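W.,

You were right to be curious about this one. When I first looked at the sequence I had no strong expectations either way, so I just let the prediction run and decided to look at it fresh. Below is the sequence, 133 residues in total, followed by the output.
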Amino acid sequence: MVASVISRISALVLCVAGIALLFAPDVVLPSVLPAFPPSAAWVGQLLAAAWLGVAVLNWLQRRAALGGIYGRPTVLANLALYFISALSLLRAAASSAAPVPLWLTAVVAGLLAAAYALLLLRGPFGTPEHSAR
């Protein structure tokens, strides 16, 4: 149950961000990185492709048991994505006068990294097998 909610939230976050970067990287990236050159919008589109791919993975796994030994590839892929993203964004935000969207993105990535870390370490929450213990 909880894993399903986490998968849906993750899919929604990645889908919204991926679509925004896919269709408007020349608008989104300069708002987060003021010195970003508009001619490098293709970098945002590549990131959008990766995010949309993980969003589809999360959406297709939304009803599966995730956590512990169940759905480990999906949980680890999301944990790596969000943990590395959170650390990179926090480093970028701390090193300069970062705009608010950068901090918000770092917080969301950190929260999702923590959720997937708990799923990895504690197992699938809210499933009948887990509740019976």
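Here's what jumped out at me. Residues 2-131 form one domain. And, maybe more interesting for your project: The radius of gyration is 16 Å.

Coffee later to discuss?

I.
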